[in-house]
Write the structure tokens for this entry.
Amino acid sequence: MERNLSHPDNTLLEDYFEKCFVEVYGSDGLKYLEKEYHLQDIFGNNILVDYVVETKDKKYAIEENGVNYHHPQLVGVERYKQQLIKQKSLVKYNFVIFRWSTEHLLFKEKMCDDLKLFLGDKDRFIDKTDIKVSRGFKLYEHLEVTLLDIKKAREEGNNSFLVVLPTVSGKSKIIEEDIKENLFIKS
Amino acid sequence: MLYKDVITTLENHGCKFIEKVDYFADVPDMYSLFFELEKYCLIIDYNICKITNPIFNYAEYTNKQNEYMFKYNQCYRFYVENDEDLDIAIVTFKTLISTDNEIDIN
């Protein structure tokens, strides 16, 4: 199974980035992002790109870079050279690469301006539906029951709900699925 | 290496010098040089892994690179510390651009 189909939890940086992307390209904007894109570098080693956006005539590789793992002075010469091999490989494969640092991602307004400038209008983007819609996992029964209860209560005119469940039992997942059902699908 | 020597070497290979980025005013042996050759951009990082206190601003680094990526689309970046590294960078850069369009992962 591809990692992007079995890895529903975002890192903090991914979360920041995707929020900015949705801010710029709308609530269904994530369908244009291909997450954790696999390919080989020019020496045949496996590499992973955080996100790829494609248009009919361009491919954009997007990397969100935590300072501790990417800053040349912190990672040292050898790891920095490895980063550059990956970057050169992507350029060679006709990707346009954009990197955003942690600091950058925290400034949402600047980040959104960059996305608009560098990636342009979403009309050009190719739909990559695997990121959101086709995640290959099944909800636990207690989550499905809760979602059905919410749906039923909503049909009866209620608009606010309180879900009480133990820690790490899927409360966030309930919110995510409820939003998907009531925001993404109806939009 | 003095940055002027790097510029001269690259200019002798047909590259057009665009700008020099210094990371600290008081650390002259640590810089990035930006060049253009036809439709390509070449970035030479000289000694930028050198430890300083504080370290340089990484957001400025990514911001600058994004600007060049946006402008040139094909932007190759190399790290060098000496003449030999620079020679390897030049040969690699020329090889990469001379085989342009020969590799397409699609």
About this structure: The beta strands of chain A are 34-40, 46-54, 59-65, 95-101. Helices of chain A lie at 3-6, 12-25, 67-70, 72-92, 102-106, 108-119, 141-155, 171-184. Residues 34 and 148 of chain A are 31 Å apart (CA to CA).
